[in-house]
Amino acid sequence: MNDNIRRRKRHEAVFGVVGLVALMIGVLTFAVLFADMALKGAGRLDLDFFTSFPSRRAGQAGILSAWVGSTLVMLTTAFFAVPLGVAAGVYLEEYARRNWVTDLIEINITNLAGVPSIVYGLLALGLFVYQFGFGQSILSAGLTLALLILPVVIVATREAIRSIPQEIREGSYALGATKWQTVRYHILPYSSAGILTGIIIGMARAIGETAPIITIGALTFIAFLPPSPVQAAPPFLSFEWLFSPFTVMPIQMFNWTSRPEAAFQVNAAAAGFVLVVMTLAMNGAAIWLRYRLRRNIKW
Amino acid sequence: MVLFLAALVSVFTTVGIVYVLVKESVVFFQHVPLADFLTDTQWTPLFDDAHFGIVVLLSGTLTSSMVALSIAIPLGTVIAIYLSEFAHHRLREVAKPFLELLGGVPTIVYGYFALLFVTPLLQKIYPGLPGFNLLAAGLVMGIMIIPYVASISEDAMRAVPMSLREGSYAMGATRLQTALRVVFPAAFSGVAAAYILGISRAVGETMILAVAAGMQPNLTFNPLEPAATITAYIVQVALGDLPHGSVGYQTIFAAGLTLMLITLVFNIAGHLLRKRFREAY
């Protein structure tokens, strides 16, 4: 009897260690990956690296066109994904009736979240690049990534709205507000932090996506910048950059990684380090925001 | 009304994906009989002597996914049980966000890691290993999938009502016995959904394989060899300069359609299982 209990307790202790080790494998892998890139890439991480174009000589190559491209693509993505995602989330939570159309939309969103990202690339290649004639441009890439992160933004919006108690809506209606006024002055402001969390997580995913952008045919070697959106002559704003060829951070890194010369792989490490720091910062900000949100809200 | 149209964009996206994939694939299958596509054992679409045997690419996808899952499923399950049943809630509060961060690392970075860190490491143990191989890519892919499997499984286990655990403790069971014989079976449909979503993730993963497994079509189930997967093939073609409308261009849509159908089956299965565990209590 006693032996049996002791054996069970021993199994229990062993599992406690096994669980911790399993958790540590994930954590340690990431630590090794991060340290490896930081150590290898450290020598290249200076101001020149951020202000130089890619070059045939590894020592002079930089990520200027890559980070400018990433920034412009992200702007385009946010411009489409945020209004569409939030509007769709608000519709599904506040306006939609329970009928087959709503069911269809919901099943669709769940399913889209599971479609491999490269399939979005094929969609964009067939539709945006050739059918609509946008070409291999920043606009095509921004639209592709916007569709890709749309499910993330919609789901986050819905969850944020669902956590608002029904009494808030009833109070607003009791004062004579219309449905739109209730949404505009109560639902959206109260759910904004939750929605923002979803947007940041979506953007962090978009900035690291490589496959769909390669599929639409982004170039891997770009030694010029897209035309500037702000110009000296009227009308001062130009949208020519939307149709410019471009490259982005992950593609630049892919290009350097797949070269046999060790010097370029050092560049890949440096670019990877920058990329990881950016996505970690974004995801970290989202997690921190959610944590604060859970602590501060008391309905 | 405007809001309704925004919600419909997701439906249009699906319609768009199906339209593009099917449209190009239909043209492709006018050149290449479906029987050849499914039974040919060579994949040389860009050679003069062109063969279109999708089995070749499928073997790469299958082998790398098996390697990844043999890492992700055991580790993910153990982590889920540990976090849900054993860990102090403080540790859980730290570990869950950390796992989320791991899942947010761009896959190209994992690809770099597989090619330039894991492969040289494995070559020290097994010197004959080629520079491109499915093993390193699969292992790193497994690590990448752990957070998904662990997170969804843990949610499923935490949804098991406390009363079931208390009943088990009252009978004198230890925490481990309760976890393995009461909580795990009760949460099984949710855990299975996590596994299936993990599989779908592995099948659709692109950059790790394109970087670390090589892009050479190779009919093999040996993880020590280099081989192309469906996704890596699409990347390879996209990097090249194939004219719009050529058979080579259409192959990537046929390959994409195959990929889409495979992941769709897994996603639907996972979705149904997840729904079941939600309704259980």
Explain this structure to me?
The complex is a heterodimer of chains A (299) and B (281). In chain A, helix 5 crosses helix 6 (138-162) and helix 10 (249-257) packs antiparallel against helix 11 (262-296). By secondary structure, chain A is mainly alpha-helical. The termini of chain A are far apart. Chain A has eleven helices and no strands. The longest helix of chain A is centred in the N-terminal third of the chain and has 40 residues, at 2-41. Chain A is globular, with a radius of gyration of 24 Å. Chain A has helices at residues 2-41, 47-51, 64-95, 100-113, 117-131, 138-162, 166-174, 179-208, 211-215, 249-257, 262-296. Chain B has helices at residues 2-31, 34-39, 54-86, 89-103, 107-125, 134-158, 162-170, 175-186, 188-204, 207-212, 230-239, 247-279. The mean pLDDT of chain B is 86. In chain B, 77% of the residues lie in helices and 0% in strands. Chain B is mainly alpha-helical and 281 residues long. The chains are: A mainly alpha (299), B mainly alpha (281). Chains A and B meet through helix 1, helix 3, helix 4, helix 5 and helix 6 of A and helix 1, helix 3, helix 4, helix 5 and helix 6 of B.
The largest sheet of chain A, given as strand count, sense and whether it forms a barrel, is: none
- Percent of residues in β-strands of chain B: under 5%
Report the span from N to C terminus of chain B.
37 Å
Shape estimate of chain A: globular
Q: How many distinct helices of chain B? A: 12
Mean pLDDT of chain B: 86
Which CATH top level class of chain B fits?
Mainly Alpha
Distance N terminus to C terminus of chain A?
53 Å
Q: Provide the structure class of chain B.
A: mainly alpha
The percent range for helix content of chain A is over 70%
Largest sheet report of chain B:
none
Would you tell me the structural class of the helices and strands of chain A? mainly alpha
Query: Mind telling me which CATH architecture of chain A this is?
Result: Orthogonal Bundle
Report helical residue fraction of chain B.
Answer: over 70%
Broad shape of chain B: globular
- The CATH H-level superfamily of chain B is MetI-like
